[in-house]
Amino acid sequence: MPNLFTRRHFFARSALIGCSAAASPLLTPVSFAAAPWDTRLVVIILRGAMDGIDVVRPYGAPEYATLRPGEAGGGPDLDGFFGLHPELSDLMPLWNAGELGFYHAVSTPYRDKRSHFDGQDILEAGTPGLDGARDGWLNRLLTKLPGVEARTAYAIGRGDMKLLAGSAPVADWSPDADLVLSPQALRLAERVMEDDPAFHAAFSEALMLSGDSALAPLPDEETMGMGAPVDSNKAHAVIAEYAAEQLRGDARIAAFSINGWDTHNRQSRAIVPALRRLSETLLLLRSGLGNSIWSNTAVIAMTEFGRTVAINGTGGTDHGTGGAMVLAGGAVQGGKVHGDWPGLAESDLYQRRDLMPTRDVRAPAAWIMHGLTGIDRAALEQVVFPGLDMGDDPRVTR
């Protein structure tokens, strides 16, 4: 009988547990809310800090080739200045149809500490800082809209989507998942990983060495007699298909996560599984909803912060500030990279290391909700996103 408890097996298991916030799509929920209006809103949290300038590449910036050697070329051109990561090439028909767009150089008000957990908490609370709201911005939106009621249970994993926490009724659903640790133990493991750079690096390296197999059940997990788990590599497809099914019916709002964006090492390889999950998710939503519903749907994909502009010594990027938002659906103004591009010269960067944010990520989200539901600006700035100045309309919806 082979010895399964090898160093590689240990680190692969550790990566499965400790890096779960950045790798496993089974640890965060998808929730739905039903309402009488006819548009649909899908919010996807990209956990782990997606590198916006790798996903939407500013080829036209003269500094880009030096800051990101090896990234130039290979992906489809978007507008003569920006290009798309090659792994998202399958989304070009959406771009060409005006059903895919991006908003560049955005971030939450969170600055400098660059903790995934604090960053995600602020992103989901929709507040200027960590203090204040105990509910989430998407739930607060529901409190301002008519006819909202929960349908059935829809939560992927055993955790909570904080952006849906609050007084408005929502429902959660979970696919069949065989998780070894409790949410509390997972959260503790994630905290330990984040606070120990060496441990974090070991996890990341093990995940890279193992590839997607690090996310699949290990042999002893397959024989625990606790029921067949959902394949981690296919969970995003289960989520997208189920979301589309519910949104074809009474559900109007869906929220879930796609993880795996924490690319400290060998980013050119590490980011690929997450990009594939994102691409497949959007395409499955598109096909599952059908033309008539998709034409009235807006998908917002947001991340807690961006990543450093320059590549680090291990071929990855570290936690940064400005990032990108992904927009999709027939209700969004696609075929365009929105936002005010700040430039990549050292003097243009935030703290001379990060992409400078030129707009609060909450503002485009607020304008999309305004366009979809007609909710007034005062409610968005004072209740949904307290302390937000939405600024001028960026025209991100049709």
TrEMBL record:
<dbReference type="InterPro" id="IPR006311">
    <property type="entry name" value="TAT_signal"/>
</dbReference>
<feature type="signal peptide">
    <location>
        <begin position="1"/>
        <end position="33"/>
    </location>
</feature>
<dbReference type="Pfam" id="PF07394">
    <property type="entry name" value="DUF1501"/>
</dbReference>
<dbReference type="InterPro" id="IPR010869">
    <property type="entry name" value="DUF1501"/>
</dbReference>
<protein>
    <submittedName>
        <fullName>DUF1501 domain-containing protein</fullName>
    </submittedName>
</protein>
<keyword id="KW-0732">Signal</keyword>
